[in-house]
Specification:
Blueprint: H1 7-25, E1 36-40, E2 43-49, E3 65-68, H2 86-95, E4 101-105, H3 108-115, H4 125-128, E5 134-137, H5 149-156, E6 161-164, E7 168-173, H6 176-196, H7 208-223, H8 225-243
Parallel strand pairs: 5-6
Antiparallel strand pairs: 1-2, 1-4, 2-3, 4-7, 6-7
Helix pairs in contact: 1-8, 2-5, 3-6, 6-8
Length: 252
Amino acid sequence: MSDLWSADETKLRIQLAECYHLIDYFGWTEMIFNHISVRLPGEPKRYLVNAFGLNYDEVTPENLLIVDADGHIISNSANKPNPAGFALHGSIHGARNDIHCVIHTHTNAVCAVAMKEQGFSHDNFYGAQLFERVGYHDFEGITLYDDERPRMLASLGNKHVLVLRNHGVAVGGADVPRAFFLLWIVQRAAEIQCQTGMIPGKDITLSDEIRRRCAQDAEGVIANSQAAQKMFDAAVRKIRKERGPLWAGDQV
């Protein structure tokens, strides 16, 4: 690891690289596309993100790039980030001080839900946990343009899940483990909703009271950083047992 990094930055780089490998392990990648970003300690307008062209399982603490909220590269590196991530990640990092990590995915299940006018159902165990916690943003094409930023932020509001209609999803958390935990809930909700739609018969619906209580309880669990950290660490242990070191010099 570089001597130029503080202990906090070193820890963050390792954790973010681990998150990229987790997304790869669970099959939630989109080839070399999409992004996971995390704000640097003490640097509210700068964040770490992957270099464009790398597979997620090729991401290491060393090859992560530093960019600012406008997409300018701060790192001394020949690698470049994907410009399609600036409008989405940069706008959230630049405006939401409570969100330090942003994960964007295009899984089949999430994209299918993003295609539906109703969006997420809140009648399954995981969907109920998202009740009143999801914002929706109408599709405007590939997220490349600065003028879309304020509209995306308005669609997100004070929530931590943004469904990009006809596109995918972005989730934000106070740190990497909490963002990953929330993404897992979103992914499970989407998968179950897709499976439910294949089965004939009327669904059992939940009352708003039950949905709201479930969502509040789930949000409390995610806000408990110890629970999110335990889940994240368990997932990392799992892939290291199966894959061994995730990068050169990785400590198993």
